Amino acid sequence: ARTPVTVTVTGAAGQIGYALLFRIASGHLLGNDVPVRLRLLEITPALKAAEGTAMELDDCAFPLLAGIDITDDARAAFDGVNVALLVGARPRTAGMERGDLLSANGGIFKPQGEAINAGAADDVRVLVVGNPANTNALIAASHAPDVPSSRFTAMTRLDHNRAKTQLAKKAGVTVNDITNLTIWGNHSATQYPDIFNAKVNGRNAAEVVNDQAWLEGDFIPTVAKRGAAIIEARGASSAASAANAAIDHVYSWVNGTPEGDWVSAAIASDGSYGVPEGIISSFPVTSNGGEWEVVQGLEISDFSRSRIDASVAELVEERDAVRALGLI
Ligand code: NAI
């Protein structure tokens, strides 16, 4: 039998955690032949709720679930971790300034980065879901100097999946017919979903759609504001779709992306496409089953350039703000 892979989920008692843990335990994160050991990290007052979720995981009798540990201690949670899903974060509340939000999250992601640095397995892969995800990933990475920065990523796969469905609907096809879509930049309202390099059944998506008014007035804002639209409709934020995207991100990273296609993930920039080095920004990426690689050589129109630059500028501002606060 294979040795179980240790998967740590922070914010495990939250709503994404509730949608995520059962899919990890049933084999969707890594593959249906890979046993997993779950580590649930929560703040002390939420430990009891995490225990309740663990009881339900037990009650599923998942053949691949090798064990569950629950803790409020980051060091214990990340000791020997192979896959770390950092979901728990401090949400923005009414009247909160950006500096307060970044400080509160620095208080979470700095010690978690340190704990990953101290105890993670050599092959550790980290996905930050908790917002502001890109900058939280930057904070964690900067406190884990012994872990390659390429192992710290932030999630834009939900934006990618949202864009895929919106484009498929517009083109009158299914998501199976859409490839090579890209989310660039920050997981925020400035993100840029790029259809100029995307394909609909192998044909250039922007040419198939041929509707700049739809692109600017409908598609881009619909994708960017989808989170708010879900809250408005459901009375709660997107959780199952966010959990699904986290599963997709890690599955693609570990098991590879299909030949000829790519996905979107926020990774530390190597300077590609003029994104300042070190910024954790979303790119078109492939994986051969291990490491992300930025797809090179894509044509970037003036329209795309200005959208990418605006989102990257926001990330640079966030980086400068956390630097000024002493968080990185
Ligand atoms: P939630 O509020 O239901 O759950 C968050 C959980 O994190 C809570 O149980 C809380 O106790 C826990 N937590 C807080 N601080 C912690 C710490 N220091 N260590 C461990 N656990 C801690 O929130 P939900 O809906 O599960 O969302 C989680 C995060 O994911 C939010 O920041 C949300 O904005 C973000 N998100 C990101 C998306 C993306 O596409 N990147 C999409 C949807 C949500």
From TrEMBL:
**What organism does this protein naturally occur in?**
Longivirga aurantiaca
Q: Does the keyword NAD apply?
A: yes
Q: What is this protein called?
A: Malate dehydrogenase
Keywords attached to this Swiss-Prot or TrEMBL record, sorted alphabetically, are: NAD, Oxidoreductase, Tricarboxylic acid cycle
Residues in Lactate/malate dehydrogenase C-terminal domain copies: 156-321
The organism's taxonomy opens as: Bacteria, Bacillati, Actinomycetota, Actinomycetes, Sporichthyales
> Which residues does the UniProt record annotate as the domain Lactate/malate dehydrogenase N-terminal?
6-145
Q: Which Gene3D superfamilies does this entry report, sorted A to Z?
A: Lactate dehydrogenase/glycoside hydrolase, family 4, C-terminal (3.90.110.10), NAD(P)-binding Rossmann-like Domain (3.40.50.720)
Locate the residues binding substrate.
R92, R98, N131, R162
SUPFAM superfamilies registered for this protein in UniProt = LDH C-terminal domain-like, NAD(P)-binding Rossmann-fold domains
The gene it comes from is mdh
